[in-house]
Amino acid sequence: MHFLIVIIAVPYYCPMDNSTRVEDCTKNPDSIDIAALRNQTLKYERDGLIDPTEDMFSDRLFIYNGLNDIRIVPGQQTS
Description:
Blueprint: H1 22-27, H2 34-46
């Protein structure tokens, strides 16, 4: 069995090393540039900073969030 557990407050690399974007990433999920996040993830992979993303392709994904969470506003989630 393979699994990945990710516990973060904002989407991976969403603030893009800019601390002023953290609130935007948590309060305005529809404003997140998914293509930029994907490109940065692939760059980290090419640079050997993270494991190959292909290792996750067949993994199941579970997204959990608190219904009363005032810090992280859930965005549109699709499978």
